[in-house]
Amino acid sequence: MSVSASAEATRLLPRWLLITVTTLLVAMVLIPVLYIVLASLNSDVGVASGEYWPSSFTLDSYTRIWTTADLSTGIVNSLIVCAFTAVASALLGTTTAYVLVRYSFFGRLTILRGLVGLQSIPGTLMLLPVFVLFSSAGNYLGLTVIGTRWGLFVAYLTFALPFSTWVMVTYLRGLPRELEEAARTEGASTVVILWKIIFPLSLPAIVVSGIFAFLLGWNDVLFASVLTRPETHTAAVALQIFGSQQEGGALPVYSQMMAAALICAAPVVLLYLAFQRYLVGGLTAGGVK
């Protein structure tokens, strides 16, 4: 039996139904995105009047949004906080996972089970405890935590690290020990093994864990709205404030809102495009065959 015939035999849905379902799913995703793009190229009056296709295409919304909303400060803050969160989470997750996978010690299984259990705790449940903890740190230690970028970084790292560690645990279990044993016979230390063997071989999984940590901070509104002040607001908070200010206005600037949404989504899209080949390997990772 040929490969194509075997694929036809094992397909769950008929070909015509598969094409129909795929087309509908793609349309459900692309039609709203297309409307957002067209609305951002329209005028505020045109969008408010219900035009789906702009009567005249213009880029005014992309230039006005920088003065209408405090978007530039928010994007800079988000890039700084999320980039540090992604790098720290990926590096700490990899080293922690290496210890959990390669060494046996008391409490190891408890830690592994705890990593899974922490994923079930909703972030909203932790908002008040984190706020109280950061406020107490400021009062007793003389540290300014709330309203700073590094305080938001610590909060994001707290939630991103368990997931990154579990991703790396799953990946490192598939890496052969022979490479490390050969390196140790040559006198390589654990740090050298991590830097020259584990990190290069685990790059796809490291990228996956880093991107998920980046997205955790980039999409967050709840913690960022509580733990920041106006000069440290993130892009998501700036976008939310800008949208709430338009409620009840004489002429809602819908076109500028769509342009702001696309600008805030652009870094994430570029991130996926830049690391696409690593994402495929990391998400389907089982180690080196």
UniProtKB/TrEMBL annotation:
Regions that span the bilayer: 12-38, 75-101, 121-141, 153-172, 193-218, 253-275
Keyword Phosphoprotein: no
Subcellular location, record wording: Cell membrane
Signal peptide region: none
Membrane-related topology note: Multi-pass membrane protein
Domain ABC transmembrane type-1: residue ranges: 75-275
InterPro entries: BP-dep_ABC_trans_perm, MetI-like, MetI-like_sf
Main subcellular localisation: membrane
Keyword tags: Cell membrane, Membrane, Transmembrane, Transmembrane helix, Transport
Protein family per UniProt: Belongs to the binding-protein-dependent transport system permease family.
PANTHER family linked to this entry: INNER MEMBRANE ABC TRANSPORTER PERMEASE PROTEIN YCJP, MALTOSE TRANSPORT SYSTEM PERMEASE-RELATED
Name under which the protein is recorded: Carbohydrate ABC transporter permease
